[in-house]
Design brief:
Strand order of the largest sheet: 1-2-4-3
Number of strands: 4
Distance between the termini: 6 Å
Strand content: under 5%
Largest sheet: 4 strands, mixed
Number of domains: 1
Length: 385
């Protein structure tokens, strides 16, 4: 195996990732401030009354209008940051999407978020109104089952709304990737070319879906710039997640976290109902004016748990890497693929430790490559080209 020459992060890569993080932090801060203002000024109660009168005291319609207000307001607040992020991708030559196409995607994403938000809110408050003490347990079970269902249908319902997919035309590569799946004992519906170049210059590949919707997707940007060996190495990593049952494990972890989350929501909305200090309005549990409080609790929990979830994810990624090294004839293509992806996607090869802990769901590229080289040294047969 030809020794890998380590590359330092470019100035562009450092600056691009630093700005992207600031955009994400600012967006989260805006959402938190907005939700807090709704609660502590009781604007949420005022708007609840307005929607109630608007639809003739119809609870379901009033809730739908209220959710539209919340989601729409958050979208308006964050639109400037979304636009800046879009321009940032162009500034660093990571996107070739036209403004009109981007605006259309924004509109579709907004409508989808409205539909899903209304659905979940209606379901949530239906349970709160009708199940009394046990609503949070039933809601926890229901929301986890629905999340798994959405993960299953995402490749055939959600992703095609934004991207074009077609069966991979390269028969040799398709058969090679299918054989790799067979060795991993996973069934896939097929291998699809993902027309990512319509919007982005980044490259990616993934194993999407669950059960009978599981499929391999390889971006056309990956197909254009990587060898078949390198593409096989990238997919072998994705299959490592299946072999180590990371999807099932992630579902279990999310179920545990969401259990605590629903319990916390139950406690908080009961507190709001009995709040005698009037820090926020007095809302009955079934009063959807407490929705900003529900979202605020879940958002804060998500932010607090983010470093721990990232650590869990990095552990899974390291296991998937080790599976990939064992599954391919040589680790050389894995190393060159990681190096190319870091360059093409402007990824940080050597982030600071605090940035890695707080923001990175994958180990740094430099460590992944060094680990592959060390594994190859201990397994000389795998280093042969």
């Amino acid at each position: 195996m030809v020794p890998y020459t380590e590359h330092a992060d470019s100035t562009d890569a450092r600056r691009y990732n630093r700005i992207s993080r600031r955009i994400g932090i600012t967006d989260a801060a805006l959402a938190l401030v907005f939700l807090a203002l709704l609660l502590f000024t009781d604007w949420t109660g005022d708007y609840r009354d307005f929607t109630w009168r608007l639809v003739g005291h119809n609870y379901l319609l009033a809730l739908a209008v209220y959710v539209f207000f919340i989601v729409g307001s958050l979208k308006v607040l964050g639109f400037g940051l979304d636009w800046f992020s879009f321009r940032l991708e162009h500034r660093y030559h990571l996107s070739n999407q036209k403004a009109g196409s981007w605006l259309w995607d924004q509109a579709k994403g907004f409508l989808l978020s409205i539909a899903l938000s209304v659905f979940f809110a209606e379901l949530f408050y239906f349970m709160v109104r009708n199940l009394r003490q046990s609503w949070w347990i039933v809601a926890w079970i229901s929301f986890n089952l629905i999340s798994v269902f959405f993960a299953q249908i995402a490749p055939v319902v959600f992703f095609p709304l934004f991207y074009t997919f077609e069966t991979l035309k390269n028969e040799n590569l398709r058969e090679r990737l299918m054989r790799l799946c067979e060795r991993a004992r996973t069934r896939v519906r097929g291998v699809y070319e993902w027309h990512l170049s319509e919007k982005s210059r980044k490259a990616n590949a993934a194993l999407m879906g669950l059960g009978n919707t599981r499929r391999i997707v390889v971006s056309d940007t990956l197909l254009a710039g990587y060898t078949d060996d390198e593409i096989e190495a990238v997919l072998a990593h994705e299959l490592g997640h299946h072999v180590h049952r990371h999807i099932a494990l992630s579902i279990m972890v999310q179920a545990i976290i969401s259990f605590v989350g629903f319990w916390a929501i139950k406690i908080v909305i009961r507190w709001a109902e009995m709040d005698h200090h009037h820090w926020i309005g007095n809302y009955k549990q079934y009063d959807f004016a407490n929705l900003p409080l529900v979202v605020l609790v879940t958002t804060i929990m998500s932010l607090v748990l983010l470093p721990f979830m990232n650590a869990f994810s990095r552990l899974n990624e390291r296991q998937a890497d080790r599976y990939a090294w064992k599954s391919i004839p040589s680790v050389g293509p894995f190393i060159t693929a990681m190096d190319k992806l870091a360059t093409q996607n402007l990824a940080e090869r050597e982030p600071s430790r605090i940035v890695e802990l707080l923001f990175h769901s994958h180990p740094p590229i430099s460590r992944r490559i060094k680990a592959a080289e060390q594994w190859a040294e201990k397994n000389p047969a795998s280093a042969a080209r």
